[in-house]
Amino acid sequence: MIEGNRVIDIKEKPKEHEIQSNLVNVGVYAFGPDIFAAIRRTNHYGELKLTDTLREFIDDHLLHAVHYDGMWLELSRPWDLLSVNSGILAQTDSVIADPAVVSKGATLGDPVVVGEHSRIQPGARIFRDVVIGDNVTIGANTVITNAIIFEDAVIEPGSVISDCIIGSGTTIGPLNSIEGGRTDVRVDDELYTDVKFGGLVGDNVETAGNVTIEPGTIIGNNVSVESGSTLTGRIPENAHVFRG
Asked: 130 φ, ψ to 5°?
């Protein structure tokens, strides 16, 4: 809560009946050295929350709020990255880096971003809200929509990818399917329902051909997947997945 521009109370994740303000703390701060002494005085068990420190700090210090009325995009869960990506792209035109090579037979929608030295092969169709990092290879006849593909990834021919994040150095084999759409996703101990999320594929993952990654799947780093496998749920890092 604020009076004028002075913060008089702050509460971390209040329950619905505890909400007394329509203001949200975006978590951007500028402090003087006094804050460090206040942090040391804060009682905590395990995680120390800065908001706990601030609730005591404002008893004898002025804490001013700066209002921001621009775009607000939350980024705390894996699929939020896709929402943020879409929100930012909606305010800009497509950007194709000069060193990128886009074959004449490829189709690029709008808006998309293609990084430096990336290669998009004939027949590939890159639809809306796709960001492709540097040095990425998109194989022939691949179809991609609403996705973020980090640097040095390879998407081999004939794959279909939707609502997905693909980490750096990852190779998605030929004729893979990463299904998009709405699903339920469990993150740690919390279940999120009706989430639009095809999946998250970590760094340096390698899938062989004809692999299906079902909606909501989260794959850790350095995973290898054999041909014909179907993945769902959470796959831990360094795992080797084979068709059972």
From this structure: -120, 130
